[in-house]
From TrEMBL:
Residues 33-211 form the FAD-binding PCMH-type domain. The keyword Flavoprotein applies. This is FAD-binding oxidoreductase. The lineage of its organism: Bacteria, Bacillati, Bacillota, Clostridia, Lachnospirales. Keywords: FAD, Flavoprotein, Oxidoreductase. It comes from the Bacteria. It comes from Lacrimispora xylanolytica. The keyword Flavoprotein applies. It holds the Pfam family FAD_binding_4. PROSITE patterns: FAD_PCMH. PANTHER family: GLYCOLATE OXIDASE SUBUNIT GLCD. Its cofactor is FAD.
């Protein structure tokens, strides 16, 4: 790599660095998977991104795109050296079009900042993954979901258009502000969820909704986790239209309480369902009352309406910090398996049995309304060799069970490096072949986010990560 050539593109010394780089740029949020890179660049324009990729293309240098680095599966870990392309300085909200209910932003804008901005203008951006300091570009790259997906869908449903830079530096615009589009192949949807393996996102046109008139959260404690999970289907079938349906075990709430110093009501519960309703006030009240009738008839211990904002915010804060709360106690492997919603209770029951059989703590919580189960396998006092051996075996078992139930490897975190072996084992060779053909068409030199997800080699590489 010619440092002078790269410095000619990024002449601002504060936006370029060469080896050795700060360790945080070589990993993800968990910091356990570590890569290596020769250079870090922080572009501020599409032109600079294009020039960097053209240089990398000509010299066949690997490029690892990066946003806020909040990823949990190693998607931002540089595998083969090369350039880390950090888009965090491209963080402007460019426009808000109130007539088309769209906004145009750069990829480095934080989710929390964008949501606050549009809500201040009377609008609403529904995608709501737990990490609010993730970037919008990162959310699009993993098709992030979150707690409101049961009513509003996931990030994909709110992306109208993208400006992209391909591996060879070509700038491309896909999608538009139009609501409908039957004009050829949907290149936009091909990029969403591709984890930076096909193109680099430099601008985003996002769909907005009018801001709901009101929102109301409810905490429902149950005597057992499975009774709580079984209530979810009743709520969904009753057409009460909840915005969020979250489930969590008492044992993990205890960790969250200790981590944040916030107490949940009804500590005698074994599990909780956390509901939110939003919309017009009379509709919200009617839905909440109907949900109360349903759950109290099916063995709920209580129905706690969280009208106090401080209490409601605290309850949700604990829910959002659960992965960090577990990590504060012990190293753990976070998993975001998704199964059909009618199979959630069967999968969780299997995990609880496996926990007893294998004597490894396994903590379940997540998005009950869409079958996205967050599972933490906890290391405890195991030494490194024992932890690696037992984790590998137990991960294999939980993924095998999920696949048998018709589930998938990831609901919202993506595949990256850490979930790649399980994705490859659970995906047909025909599907993998098509994915790799698409990769070869858009990036024939294979420089973008090398070795992630489906890329290169197929199933024979599943155990090499």
């Amino acid at each position: 790599m010619e440092k002078d050539e790269l410095s000619d593109i990024i002449s601002d010394e504060s936006r370029i660095a060469f080896e050795p780089l700060e360790p945080r740029f070589l990993s993800d949020s968990l910091g356990r998977l570590k890569g290596r890179a020769d250079a870090l660049v922080l572009p501020v324009s599409t032109k600079e991104v294009s020039q960097i990729l053209r240089y990398a293309w000509e010299h066949e240098i690997p490029v690892t795109p990066r946003g806020a680095g909040t990823n949990l599966v190693g998607s931002t870990v540089p595998m083969e050296g090369g350039i880390i392309l950090d888009l965090s300085r491209m963080n402007r909200i460019l426009s808000l079009d109130k007539d088309t209910l769209t906004a145009e932003v750069e990829p480095g804008v934080f989710l929390k900042d964008f949501q606050a901005y549009v809500e201040g203008e009377g609008f609403f951006y529904p995608p709501d993954p737990g990490e609010k300091e993730s970037t919008l570009g990162g959310n699009i790259s993993t098709n992030a979901g979150g707690m409101r997906a049961v009513k509003y869908g996931v990030t994909r449903d709110y992306v109208r258009g993208l400006e992209l830079v391909l591996a060879d530096g070509t700038v491309l615009t896909v999608g538009s502000r139009n609501v409908k589009d039957a004009s050829g192949l949907s290149l936009k949807n091909l990029i969403i969820g591709s984890e930076g393996t096909l193109a680099v996102i430099t601008r985003c046109i996002l769909k907005l909704l009018p801001k709901p008139e009101t929102s109301l959260s409810v905490l429902v404690p149950f005597g057992s986790l499975l009774v709580g999970i079984r209530n979810v289907l009743s709520i969904l079938k009753a057409n009460v239209n909840p915005t969020a349906v979250e489930f969590v075990e008492r044992k993990v709430i205890s960790l969250g309480e200790e981590f944040l110093g916030i107490q949940y009501p009804r500590p005698d519960a074994a599990s909780y369902i956390l509901l939110t309703f939003d919309g017009r006030e009379e509709e919200v009240e009617a839905s909440a009352n109907r949900a109360k009738e349903l759950v109290m008839a099916q063995r709920a211990l209580d129905y706690i309406v969280l009208r106090d904002k401080e209490l409601s915010d605290g309850i949700w804060k604990v829910r959002g910090a659960l992965v960090k709360a577990v990590e504060a106690v012990s190293q753990q492997e976070p998993v975001d398996i998704v199964v059909p919603i009618d199979k959630s209770s069967e999968f969780i029951d299997y995990v609880n049995q496996l926990e007893q059989e294998k004597n490894m703590q396994m903590i379940c919580f997540g998005h009950a309304g869409d079958g996205n189960i967050h599972l933490c396998l906890v290391r405890g006092e195991r030494d490194e060799e024992t932890w690696n051996r037992e984790l590998k075996e137990n991960m294999r078992l939980v993924y095998e069970k999920a696949f048998k139930l018709g589930g998938l490897t990831s609901g919202e975190h993506g595949i990256g490096l850490s979930k790649r072996p399980y994705f490859l084992s659970g995906t047909s060779s025909e599907n993998l072949e098509v994915m790799n053909r698409i990769k070869e068409a858009l990036d024939p030199k294979g420089i973008l986010n090398y070795g992630k997800s489906y890329i290169t080699g197929g199933k024979e590489h599943a155990e090499t990560v």
